[in-house]
Amino acid sequence: MSSDQLQRLKPGQSPHEPEKATLEGKNKFLGFWFFLGGETVLFASLFGTYLALNGEASNTNGPGPAELFGLELVFIMTIILLTSSLTSVYAIYHMKNLDFKKMQLWLGITVLLGFSFLGCEIYEFYEYIVHENHTFRSDAFGSAFYALVGFHGGHVLFGLLWILTIMIRNAKRGLNLYNAPKFYIASLYWHFIDVVWVFIFTVVYLMGKLGG
Amino acid sequence: MANNTNSTSYEFYKQKNKEEMKYQLITFALMIIFTLVAFGMVIAEYDPLFTIPVIILLACVQVGFQLYYFMHMYHKGHGLPALFLYSGVFVALLTVITMVTIVWW
Amino acid sequence: MKGWMGKSRVLFLFGIMLLTLSGCGLPNLTALEPKGEGADVIYDLMMLSVIIMVVVGVIVMAIYFFVLIRYRQKDDNQDYIPKQTEGNKFLELLWTVVPILLLVVLAVPTVQKTFMLADTTPSEEDKEDAVTIEVTGKQYWWHYNYNGLEIQTSQDLYIPTGERVYLKLAASDVIHSFWVPSISGKMDTNPGDGNVNEMWINAYEEGVYYGKCAELCGPSHSLMSFKVIAVSPEEFDQWAEDMKNVDTDATPESESAQAGKELFNNSCIGCHAIGSAPAGVGPNLTNFASRVKIAGILDNNKQNLIKWLQHPEEIKPGNKMTGKYGNTEAKNPLTSEEADQLADYLLQLNPSDITPEDAEAQE
Amino acid sequence: MSTATAQKKGFGATLWDYLTTVDHKKIAILYLIAGGIFFLAGGLEAMLIRIQLAVPDNDFVSAGMYNQLITMHGTTMIFLAAMPLIFALMNIAVPLQIGARDVAFPFLNSLGFWLFFFGGVLLNISWFTGAPDAGWTAYAPLSTTSPGHGVDYYVMGLQIAGAGTLIGGINFLVTIVNMRAPGMTYMRMPLFTWTAFVTSVLILFAFPALTVGLFLMMFDRMFGANFFDPQMGGNHVIWEHLFWIFGHPEVYILVLPIFGLFSDIISTFSKKRLFGYSAMVFATVLIGFLGFMVWAHHMFTTGLGPVANSIFAIATMAIAVPTGIKIFNWLFTMWGGSIRMTTPMLWTVAFIPSFTLGGFGGVMLAAAAADYQYHDTYFVVAHFHYVIVGGVVFGVFAGLHYWWPKFFGTMLSEKLGKLAFWPFFIGFHLTFFIQHFLGLMGMPRRYWKFLPDQNLDLGNLVSTIGAVLMAIGAVIFLYNVIVTSVKGEKVSGDPWDGRTLEWSIPSPPPFYNFTQTPLVRGLDPLWIEKRQGNGKMTPAEPLGDIHMPNNSFIPFVMSLGLFIAGFGFIYQVDDSKWLGLVFVGMLITLGSMFVRSVKDDLGYHIHKEDLEKGAGSE
Ligand code: HEA
Ligand code: HEA
Ligand SMILES: [Cu+2]
């Protein structure tokens, strides 16, 4: 069975859910979902910390959320990331149709969008640090802000490297039962990053702008 | 599709996937709309007491869309993923509520 | 394995014996002989919980011993196959419901007392003369600021008996916890002004009560002892009056003490204060001579004081006095003569006639 | 048996085998050895603590040293001894109990072990440079301002070990969901497997809070962040919450598998089906669920206010109900049974009253108002040693005696087993019972010395004597292990007349566990076959090729990378040159992740013909 897994999947002769066709695939699928359950708690702890500390710039003269944040860039970043979520849906769509080329194409677009998101974020941090003089060390708000948003950024970076790795690794040999689960869970991870971002833009930026 | 008995299962699922992709697009459109509304409300400077619950609600719905459509949680075989995700959400909620209520006094 | 029962019984008896030997602990330290309202209320709750536990314990142990004795495999019956019971609805319901009821019995007074102990607003009629004290925990001593009385002092906390004294607790370095077991339960002192805690204490009788720090705060955590000195309200008023009117610049009688004063004002005053002053690096020494203990732990006499002045690190590792002036850790140690003079000065700082002895005499 | 293999293979080959193994039974042995060594270290620290407290005003160790001892004792015992020993039991038994050839993620299983191991080693290296000294709870700001690198080691060591635990937890979850043999429905799983499942759930949701807490502390200590610094708008109470959001579930993580184990043992040695099986499952899940809603009972005196305190007090008390259900179900499993007092059963029987006492202490602590007196005194120390030693440690001893045949194919001596039990059991009660009273008599915990003339002398002395007895018991147990290994007498697959699947295969099991996957016909499947069949499991499949995973050295390297980076993080505070070590370490780790990702790892097959010849069953 094992080396069969490396056989290129062809339309018409393969299972319709290649990511869950093998026991290994099923295990990966389930294990990864469980992991996301744990990640939920991880990000909640960071969100909680941020919410407890975001009002605490006042006693250190640093800028608070309302003064610091601008919404234009955040809006652009949001649209980029949401779109990248859609493109990775397309990728999985083509994976299910066993169309490897198209899957790679859409994944490629996802990666590009991901990098532009990351670029925006780095630019944003740079602005805050250099022009607003608001850093990780300025006050508790600063620490909590960079920790939460930076953790998310770190997830984005990791996701991008991961997707790139499996794209390049499998570029020549196409889709098979061995790599299908890998592509699938990488896309789950990517969606989860988007889920977290939805809360970040709502809780950190929008609510920050509202002063609450 | 039920009358598609002659086609191979591949064609059958291809069709099905296509159907599904339509929903995905609708989902995406809604998500963009929600985002616009949320940003719009903040920019329009409505009363925060009104805006905050609404944008949080919008975020939750949007995340629901991501989970159920983009991440296929509405497909069958996702019972355990849902159970574990919601357990995580439960602990997450407890944590966040704690941090906003009993950390300062 | 026949010794099972025997051995546990011996163990049990042995335990009881030990307990009687050691009693319930030192009076004015132990929580088992409450001398204040808080400790009293809590003691009742404790006893209620003990009774519940004993009841449940007796039932559990009765079944336990019965089962162990009755259902041991007999040598002649090794092949016996017991009936494979799945369960019993009634029994299972029973041991779900009964504990719930017992817990309700415990929970109701728990909630009630939790709220009672947290009620830190004086009643209308007491509002005027309720004593409120800001307590600050520091590594490794305590500072008290009597609100509205312009008194600040350290280590020994004077309170009037028979009334609730309100405490506002904070810390200036790490977390400490203020605990006077025979008067009341403990409360943490948190650093920063965002998390100030409140509690009240009410000592029934006059006395000197042992206080301890109950939150790990560094190497000398175990030495961060203090005393609560409960005196009658009249005595308390007099003490307050004396403390308020202390002449911080009085000239000591003996020559040696005068020299000590000079030394003190040249080097010690940077950290310590005499007279009402906010918590400094070191404790306020206004009424040092009447302290029950030096540094919270040594008997208050000249010999110990000199030892403390010269070798504080040996007595309280990690304290903030080490190395601040000429003691063991420094290049030029305090000479014995200097230490002697300082001690003479400090041991005559005694602005009030109300001292721990007054409280102890009443016991 | 492993030593027999060792002689065949030579030391180097055996070592390499263990460094690269992905076999859950070998990983179990690794966990056992590492956890055992850490238990001895933690026990040694405990002995030093007790010696220091034997007499008043003692100067056996210095104040700073004492704080390091208690911190390392608590941390080592909880994270590096109790958890891994439980993982050892879970690894040996869970796959066998559900009739699986392997775990779901053999590679991750090995990774989990090595992360734990390197984290533990990192933490203990701190002994050479100054160990952490802020208590195992590491409350800020004491921890964030603690001089030296002790707390840095705590942060990095626990972060690495914690990652390993999380990975291990996910592995067990998926294993139990996906790898059960045909017929092994959820409601037919042995209780140990059930509790392993619920414990893994708790790990999954509790450890991320610790991860974040440790990150925040790391940022504060090493990179100048201000999460816990009140001067800069920070708040140390956040640490308390994050620590206990993790910390309370952690104590149930420790005790639940032990509950399951005792259920299996009691049922086996009473020759009876577990009384109230479904109630036991339900109680386990309920304890797990409630376990997440009670953490603030560790913070009653922090100042959260009467409303929060009351809510958490009531939630905490509620846990007594499902735990009580368990106690009574155990008693009624024995009721009407035919009880064999073997060593595992002896530990189990000793556990019931000991743990109940500890639980009573817990409920007393849960009464928030009363906790104002108990908190941070020896009453608490007494409570948690009663539940942890009387529960978890007794359980580990019971489990090791019970499953020793599955680990090594030999049996620990029953005689020595009982000989070790008595001093440990008596010493345990001597040590900890009296501590309840010490606490109420005014002795706070974490006290380097207690002062003379405070009526605390006798109690402390008794406690120390008890600890010596425990040490004697532990040494006898060690002696038993050595004697047994030297003798190396083989036992059958089913020496206890067992009821569950692990007893249907040889001791030690062949590396592929089941030649043919068994068909499960009910709860206690082997027992059913013994009563209603021919005493053997019916196979669920014809004899065929077995697919096995390849060994891998990557988990070791990946963990080693983090270990190296850990040093870098700790020392870059002094000199930024150390950041180089961070990069080297991370490069090793990320590099090996990359290799893992691009290298196909398809495993191999054992062929049917070889199976017929009996390959693997040495
Ligand atoms: C295995 C570990 C373990 C277990 C199982 C428990 C179980 C329980 N614990 Fe414990 N606990 C710890 C480990 C554990 N604990 C540790 C390590 C600490 C200190 C950490 C530190 O500060 O360093 C601690 C501290 C601790 C505190 C904080 C004390 C303080 O710091 O002030 C509290 C307070 O509520 C508490 C409560 C409980 C309760 C109610 C239970 C319950 O689960 C117990 C339930 C069991 C029973 C009650 C017995 C059987 C039941 C019956 C026979 C039924 C009928 C009973 C009744 C009706 C009462 N524990
Ligand atoms: C799994 C958890 C666990 C276990 C098993 C133990 C086991 C023991 N513990 Fe501990 N303990 C904790 C978890 C645990 N403890 C925690 C979390 C704390 C709180 C720390 C803090 O405050 O931060 C604590 C604190 C603590 C204190 C309080 C310290 C203080 O507050 O100042 C004391 C004091 O008596 C103590 C004693 C003991 C003793 C005597 C044992 C005995 O049961 C140990 C028995 C084992 C042995 C005796 C081993 C035998 C081995 C040898 C004798 C060595 C031989 C050596 C070689 C061959 C190399 N422990
Ligand atoms: Cu707890």
Explain this structure to me?
The complex is a heterotetramer of chains A (212), B (105), C (363) and D (618). Chain A has 212 residues and is an all-alpha fold. Chain A contains six helices and no strands. Chain A has helices at residues 23-53, 65-68, 72-96, 100-131, 140-170, 180-209. The longest helix of chain A is centred in the middle third of the chain and has 32 residues, at 100-131. The mean pLDDT of chain A is 90. Chain B folds into two domains: 2-74; 75-105. Chain B contains three helices and no strands. Chain B starts with 8 loop residues before the first helix and ends with a helix. Chain D is built from 21 helices and two strands. In chain D, α9 (237-269) runs parallel beside α12 (320-334), α9 crosses α15 (378-408) and α10 runs antiparallel to α12. Chain D is globular, with a radius of gyration of 24 Å. The termini of chain D are close together. At the C-D interface, α1, α2, α3 and β9 of C face α4, α10, α11, α12 and α13 of D. Copper (II) ion binds at residues 248, 251, 297-298 of chain D. Chain A: Its main location: membrane. Chain A: This is Cytochrome (Ubi)quinol oxidase subunit III. Chain A: Pfam families: COX3. Chain A: Residues 30-209 form the Heme-copper oxidase subunit III family profile domain.
